[in-house]
Structure of Flagellar assembly protein H:
Amino acid sequence: MANPLRRFTFDLDLGRSASEPKQTFSETQFSEATADARQEGYAQGYSDGENSASVLAARALATAAENIAARGVEMAAALDDARAETLRDAVGLAASVGRKLAASLIARYPLAEIEALIAECLSTIDNAPHLVIRCDPALADAVKEIATARMATSSFAGRLVVMGDPEVAMGDCRIEWVDGGLVRDMSAISSEIDKRIAAYVAARGAARREEN
């Protein structure tokens, strides 16, 4: 007689044939599989971390390069400014020394430049009716003697007028005739020197910037 309870024992694996053996893992195999998984995970994590570090290092290097480039530009500009300032100081010092030497020479030889100017005028104003010379009052008599002597060796036959003018500085003079005149003014000459120095320094600075 068949056992009526056998149909309810549920001891069959419906997904596997009766002859297929069940797959089982020993504790050693499980440990080895776990270790392999752990090693694989560590290797992947290390690789990801290394890639992240490389990206961060590249970014840091790029930032550092940008900072160095910016500092380089700043240093170059500062160097150009220093060079320009040095040039201005050097040229300014030379001009200052030149002014002092000129003032010293004028103090020692106040008539030298005036005589040269008179000689230049008398060689070009043959038909002028008169010649007026304005100078420092202290030099009026000496200037008149110089002009008279120069007239004797020139073709100028007009009237000579020498006037002491307190507004004319020592060593300066103004020579006037009907259709012209000449002026020697150390103050104006000094201003012109300053303008030329400034133009020279500016031109050198522009040239250096173009080279860079």
